[in-house]
Amino acid sequence: MKDLTVGKEGKLIFNFAVPMLLGNIFQQLYNIVDSAIVGNYIGKEALAAVGASFPIIFTLISLIIGVASGAMVVISQYYGAKDIEKVKRTIDTFYIFVFISSIVISVVGVLFSEQIFKLMQLPEDILPQAKTYFNIYVLGMISFFGFNGTSAVLRGLGDSKTPLYFMIISTIINIGLDLLFVIVFKWGIAGVAYATIISQTGAFLTTIFYLNKTHEIIKLRLLQLKFDIDLFKKSLKIGIPNGLSQTFAALGAMAMMTIVNTFGTDIIAGYSIAIRLDALAVMPAMNFAAALATFVGQNIGARKHERVQMGMLSTLAMSGVISILVTLSLQLWGGSLLSIFTKDEKVIQAGFEYLKIVSWFYILYSVMFTLGGVLRGAGDTLVPMFITLLALWIIRIPSAYLLSKSFGELGIWWSVPMGMITGVILTLIYYKTGRYKTKGIFKYDT
Fold first, then answer.
1. How many domains does the chain have?
2. Residue 397, domain extent
3. What pTM was computed for the model?
């Protein structure tokens, strides 16, 4: 556990963010390795099937992720205030919610997967493999939520290193099982899904075993968990708007995929591998913002409000520099990186066209995520939810649809920065109002 209320702001945030960033990079390697093995050993139809599955998975889990973020804010603020009893009760309540939600999502996912894929206009040659991959993947939701929820709790307590260690082990196991199930056993796309849920389950169980033996606060013993309705309501108050924001984003990803699906297998596969690199590219900005949110939460809980502004400026500088370096890297070597996934030139060309357009605007992600980190850490998530809704559903999705009619897939790619620019402008305007200072459990002194 790490107290983020004392010490140099920029150094604290950097040291906290880097292990979290490395952990999430390894987590992204799940998807990258899956896609690379699928593209090279099964085919581009299977590659498109994996890519088509992730917007649906993201939609199913997004609301739960939002509530988890609310719980993290509650945990970090109570930990900053040194109220350990409420920290423990919030953790117990969070685990009960996560376990019940994961079972519901698994059942819903399996029952309605085919209908959802058809609604998204997925081509018939891709549908069977997409359904196979998706149905197996969602059966592992309890392990997915369990491990990622535990990691979120640890981050709320200022510990970003422990999740990293277990994520590295899990990723190595996942890669080994991918190779074994697909290349040796010839299980096809089902083997990729089985490798993922086995490695996630192993990561969750070993993490809990370790924490039960060594941690001062986190003790996951199912029969001893207690649900606190008041703390759950506080988590929901902060987490529901963020969860809805995540849901809008996930539904937006499904809508984008639906538009892309009308352009055929090559474009679907190209877009699928490009957004793998895209997700990896914005990871630094997201993780520095997540570190900032925990920093802000703890310092507001400790009534050290003067440190919030310095933390924000330090995060913006670090995140911005990394975003510029990532942009230059993808502009120069994006095509070579895409060739890791497939040797099909048409697929690579489609993916590189996306990256050449979108990567120029990564610096805007740094600004938006950093400001969002301050807002979330303070417990202010309602207005950011509406900003996400407007930028995505009023600007980006309609633009993608309309521009695709005149400019083909290039019109879809250009809709991404259009939505991004809108989101940054609106987030900056709201941040300047200072209303986030009146939100959360512990408000600014006035």
1. 1
2. 9-438
3. 0.75
